[in-house]
Specification:
Number of helices: 10
Shape: globular
CATH topology of the largest domain: Rossmann fold
Distance between the termini: 48 Å
Radius of gyration: 19 Å
Number of domains: 2
CATH superfamily of the largest domain: NAD(P)-binding Rossmann-like Domain
CATH class of the largest domain: Alpha Beta
CATH architecture of the largest domain: 3-Layer(aba) Sandwich
Helix content: 25-40%
């Protein structure tokens, strides 16, 4: 049976480090501050917001929520982001994504109105460039960085290893492939339409599931000795829980099948979610520290 890679242990270690660094910043007269920008009332955004606020309280990071109506114009969004970029007391900003479709086809351009040094979740073009080049302001997306934090905490060395990243989003798959490459892993970037996905997965030492497709990785696609990180949170209304209730979250991997074979796996829920929020606080504190340099 595989070892379960639990997010709460990784998050607790990050929280302790962030709290220590926050205390050091306060001694220098700086209060680390994060602003959350939410456009509309999406339920998943609100749930994530509550999770971030709880994490901020544990990590001693000041947090503010700035909400705009769902029918806001692109210019209203850009105006707010420019305002926040010029606020010297603000160190980090997270924009809930995806932005409402009503903002038009250039929604990514809206994010670029935020100063990259305050982009703590890798949503601007400048942050993406920093991930690819290793230089510049900004931070990688929190979920992609959370995968590295998980691997580091549990002593999984990426050097020389083969990694299969399943998912090509700008939030996880693509930046994570670059981050793993920088750690000297040999990365194959896959997706739900990749041919012979099972063969690629079996050859890998590390598998990252981030396609948002429940049941995509089965027990036949893995082998002993592998580490599997499941990033996806797929809601299944028909899922039957232990108490008889219906509805719950699963990852991309068929957990009960895969854990019988591999060496280690992160569960869903209980894996990367809390680590992602803890990484966000780490990025805010790092941005505050950079502001003093």
């Amino acid at each position: 049976m595989a070892k379960h890679l639990l997010g709460r242990e990784v998050a607790a270690a990050l929280e302790a480090d962030v709290s220590r660094r926050c205390a050091a910043l306060r001694e220098q007269g700086t209060e680390p501050k994060l602003v959350l920008v939410r456009c509309g009332e999406r339920e998943d955004d609100i749930a994530y917001e509550k999770s971030i606020l709880r994490q901020a309280a544990r990590s001693s990071v000041e947090t503010e929520v700035r909400q705009l109506p769902e029918d806001s114009s692109p210019e209203e969004m850009k105006k707010l982001l420019r305002e926040l970029s010029g606020d010297e007391k603000l160190h980090g900003c997270l924009i809930f994504r995806p932005l409402p479709e009503g903002l038009g086809p250039d929604r990514r351009e809206i994010c670029n109105a935020l100063a990259p040094e305050k982009d703590v979740d890798g949503c601007t073009a400048a942050s993406a460039a920093a991930v690819y080049t290793g230089e510049g302001a900004g931070f990688p997306p929190c979920t992609a960085q959370a995968c590295l934090e998980m691997l580091d905490f549990y002593g999984v060395d990426c050097r020389g290893k083969r990694a299969a990243v399943i998912g090509r989003s700008l939030v996880v798959g693509k930046p994570l492939a670059m981050l793993l490459t920088a750690r000297d892993a040999t990365v194959t970037l896959c997706h739900s339409r990749t041919e012979d996905l099972g063969d690629i997965c079996r050859q890998a030492d590390i598998i990252i599931c981030a396609a948002g497709k429940p049941g995509l990785v089965t027990g036949e696609m893995v082998r002993p000795g592998q580490t599997v990180l499941d990033v996806s949170m797929n809601y299944l209304p028909e899922l039957k829980n232990a108490d008889g209730s219906l509805g719950g979250f699963v990852g991309d991997a068929v957990f009960r099948e895969v854990e019988k074979t591999v060496e280690a796996i992160s569960p869903v829920p209980g894996g990367l979610g809390r680590v992602t929020s803890a990484v966000l606080m780490k990025h805010v504190v790092a941005a505050a520290e950079r502001s003093l340099e």
